[in-house]
Amino acid sequence: MEFDDDELIHFEAHGAAPLPPAAVDGHVAHDGARIWYASYGVGPAVILLHGGLGHSGNWGYQIPALLRRGRRVVLIDSRGHGRSTRDSRPYSYELMAADVLAVMDQLHLDKAAIVGWSDGACIALILAMTAPSRVEGVFFFACNMDPSGTLEFVPTPVIDRCFGRHAKDYAALSTTPDDFNPFVEAVSLMMQTEPNYQAADLGLIHVPVAIVLAEHDEFIKPDHAEYLARSIPNAEMIYLNGVSHFAPLQRPSQFSAAVESFLDGIGS
Q: What is a single molecular function from GO for this protein (predicted)?
């Protein structure tokens, strides 16, 4: 799709492209929550994990490209996000990683490649550590794996537009539509205190991994991304030029091309 929205003006007003009709969708009950999922197409499975405060609809531009390449695409709303519920426990990446495995079991998926964006990337890499037999490879876009990896937060108009869209979508999709502010506080607490993985942990990952960073990422230090690529055996470092933390929305075709190249390279 030849479409640019570098300032997220279209996204703020309309969201990403609408999701196509799913072959299968529903909820799976897991560990105090009901986790929403949807599956599209047939072929080698690719799970798309969205970022914090967002939901699976943020992948609307990527699904058609992956379907054209003969992939089965699986979306999952992280617990408490989008159409998924949560219980009273604090958010944790490990808990959300376990939710992904529950969805895979529900769909009888033995193994899948995982494309993670921001918080979704952290979840994907935790799965690569803890359940490597279920993971074909990880496309890790725009995330840290310990607190040292984040930049000092500086508000920008692009971030504000994205946040405004998240607020509208939360109100439209959530079972607790009036609780956006407590939701933001709870997710932010997780982001401030997690993840906490060290180089020794990363060195135990033995599935194909691409560490992907946008040229103008507002949240992740470039040297942290390069450290991740050095610490994970045989990891690839990919830079996306001209975009920021919101690359899948800003320049969908550029982002999709990078994903497809990675998937082709791992034979998934």
A: hydrolase activity
> What CA–CA distance (Å, rounded) separates 209 from 122?
12
Task: Look up residue 152 and give its DSSP letter.
Answer: P
Q: Is-cis flag, bond preceding 195, omega within 30? A: yes
What is the chain's length? 268
Which H or E run contains 240?
A: strand 236-240
Measure the CA–CA gap between 207 and 113, rounded to whole angstroms.
10
pLDDT at res. 1 = 47
Which of 212, 160, 153, 223 lies closest to 188, judged by CA? Answer: 153
Tell me how far apart the alpha carbons of residues 246 and 136 are, in angstroms, rounded to a whole number.
25
Per the listing, tokens 């230090």 go with: 221
**Contact partners, residue 188, CB within 8 Å, separation at least 6:** none
Tokens of 137: 């490879």
Indicate if the alpha-carbon torsion angle 238, 235, 81, 55 is positive or negative: positive
- pLDDT for 3 equals 82
As a whole number of angstroms, the distance between CA 209 and CA 207 comes to 6
Residue 230, C-beta contacts closer than 8 angstroms, at least 6 positions apart: none
Question: Rounded to whole angstroms, how far apart are CA atoms 224 and 165?
Answer: 28
- Residue 42 burial (CB count, 10 A): 11
* Count of Cβ atoms closer than 10 Å to residue 73 Cβ: 27
What pLDDT does 155 receive?
96
Biggest distance spanned by C-alpha atoms of the chain: 45
Could you tell me the mean pLDDT of each successive run of 10 residues in the chain, 268 residues long?
88 97 98 98 98 98 97 98 97 98 98 98 98 98 97 97 98 98 97 96 97 98 98 98 98 97 90
231-258 in b/e form (b: 16+ CB < 10 A) is: bbeebbebebeebbbbbbbbbbebbbeb
Residue 268 confidence (pLDDT)? 59
